[in-house]
Automatic annotation (TrEMBL):
It comes from Paenibacillus profundus. This is ABC transporter ATP-binding protein. It comes from the Bacteria. Keywords: ATP-binding, Nucleotide-binding, Translocase, Transport. Belongs to the ABC transporter superfamily. Residues 28-246 form the ABC transporter domain. One of its GO terms (molecular function) is ATP binding.
Length: 247
């Protein structure tokens, strides 16, 4: 029987956007005190529900602004939904907002140590795994350079290498593979596949439909914060492409 590891129940995420234009922070507070700031409700997610089974590779697709990253952040526990509930079973490695825990002044090596601690790895474990992380990251001599000199792809490589040195029960991958070069893409796809074989559940967000189709069992297509379709990858991707064409 299929075991559910992620259950998303009626998630709604509301952002409040200030509708006034203010030129400075001072101006903002003056207006706020005078209660002249008005807010508009913006729903990034509306009543989203689905579940993901253990060992499944689950893709999320949709146009820019559809709500994919917001949904992943809620599942990862980085954001709290306005209403609705999430249940999650097992350890999680969220590869989202890579670099959020990075420090631009520190070198690649130093960031591995810092980020590893943030991910809950012990010092001993990080030291044991350091060579493996450095090798996988393909950063060559840049590993000894401060991160502020890295491109976004280089940061993504480092983040992926750190997070996947352990086998989490749930791996969340948001566009990470899109910024890596072709060699790294192949390598990281291989790593994701080996994790899948080891039983890891993967949530994968990407605009690369070919990659989604080749990696994912099922796909969720979102539009304007709502679920359009959930189903077998090939079928849902085809429907999404047809809908995009006819727009
Ligand atoms: N902190 C925030 N405050 C207000 N609105 C936000 C915030 N974060 C995201 N949004 C809005 O929520 C909507 C969904 O954003 P989200 O980043 O989840 O989309 P996405 O599907 O991941 O897009 P993309 O494919 O471009 O990465 C967008 O309209 C965005 O402008």
């Amino acid at each position: 029987m299929n075991e559910t590891v992620i259950e998303v129940s009626n998630i709604t995420m509301r952002y409040r956007l200030a509708t006034e234009r203010v030129d400075s922070l001072k101006h903002f507070f003056v207006k706020k005190i005078k209660r002249e700031i008005r807010y508009e409700n913006f729903f990034a997610l509306r009543d989203v529900s689905f579940s993901v089974n253990k060992g499944e590779v689950f893709g999320i697709i949709g146009n820019n602004g559809a709500g994919k990253s917001t949904l992943l952040k809620i599942i990862a526990g980085v954001l709290k939904p306005t209403t609705g509930a999430i249940t999650r079973k097992g350890s999680i490695a969220p590869l989202i907002e890579l670099g959020a825990g990075f420090n631009g002044e520190l070198t690649g090596i130093e960031n591995i140590k810092l980020n590893g601690l943030l991910l809950g790895y012990s010092k001993k474990f990080i030291n044991e795994k350091l060579d493996e992380i450095v090798e996988f990251s393909d950063l060559g001599k840049f590993i000894h350079t401060p991160l502020k000199n890295y491109s976004s792809g280089m940061k993504a490589k480092l983040g992926f290498s750190i997070a996947t040195v352990v086998q989490p029960e749930i791996l969340i991958v948001d566009e990470v593979l899109a910024v890596g070069d072709i060699n790294f893409k192949e390598k990281s796809e291989k790593k994701i596949r080996s994790m899948m074989e080891g039983g890891t559940t993967v949530l994968f967000v990407s605009h690369s439909l070919g990659q989604v189709e080749s990696l994912c069992d099922r796909v969720l297509w979102m539009e304007h914060g709502q679920v359009m379709r959930i189903g077998a990858s090939e079928k849902v991707i085809k429907e999404y492409q047809e809908a995009s064409k006819s727009k």
